TrEMBL record:
This is 4-hydroxy-tetrahydrodipicolinate reductase. Its main location: cytoplasm. (S)-2,3,4,5-tetrahydrodipicolinate binds at H137, G146, T147. It is found in: Cytoplasm. Keywords: Amino-acid biosynthesis, Cytoplasm, Diaminopimelate biosynthesis, Lysine biosynthesis, NAD, NADP, Oxidoreductase. It catalyses: (S)-2,3,4,5-tetrahydrodipicolinate + NADP(+) + H2O = (2S,4S)-4-hydroxy-2,3,4,5-tetrahydrodipicolinate + NADPH + H(+); (S)-2,3,4,5-tetrahydrodipicolinate + NAD(+) + H2O = (2S,4S)-4-hydroxy-2,3,4,5-tetrahydrodipicolinate + NADH + H(+). Belongs to the DapB family. The keyword Electron transport does not apply. Its EC number is 1.17.1.8. One of its GO terms (biological process) is diaminopimelate biosynthetic process. The keyword Zinc-finger does not apply.
Amino acid sequence: MSELLPVAVLGARGRMGAEAVAAVREAPDLELVAALGSSDPLDSLVAAGARVVVDLTVPEATYDNVVFAVRHRMHAVVGTTGWTPERLGKLGTVLAGAPATGVLIAPNFALGSVLATAFAATAARYFESVEIIELHHPDKIDAPSGTAVRTAQLIATAREAAGVPAAPDATRDAPDGARGAGIDGVPVHSVRLRGLTAHQEVLFGSPGEQLSLRHDSFDRASFMPGVLLGIRSVAQHPGLTVGLDGYLDLQAGTSS
């Protein structure tokens, strides 16, 4: 019988954390060795022998949690928001002292959402206009969502590389926020509505045609396959990976 991979979940009392605890417990190749709340002491991770830490806490705690894990040679799979470029840079410096340790920071663990973002980055080169609408439950603390921000960034990078000019927009007079938040030149519109879970639609337009790419998560169970993929793969990807797409072979099936 192969050795089980010892996993700890931080933020285990939250909705995502509770789903992750259940998913790890049910996985035949994983062992849940710790399930901590956001304010529980981290020293117990060492005593428990955790090799992978899943952080699903809050933005105020996530950086310190991940640094603790890295400094104790534990891999980390992170779904918490709040990772600014400055924080990512500081984490990269910490990881330089632990070259065999991997950290995955994923704005979204739903495999369909990750694929939709990758498809959007591919399509962005071929359309004149692009905008993003993201829709979430009203308890979400950040807007735009991390998924929408990453989608916009990847779209902007693809358009710049292809030499696509800025999308046309003749708007001169509008209430503040009417055109959404500008993320790297891509308008992102956030909706917060009771009854929603996590949804995103990317709209592309060119003369005479429109393309819509939409993904819907109706239950947090949709995120668990991606969480488990991250847990099982993080040790094979030392250093920092941002986005679950870094663990997927998105080139499979394409011609060379």
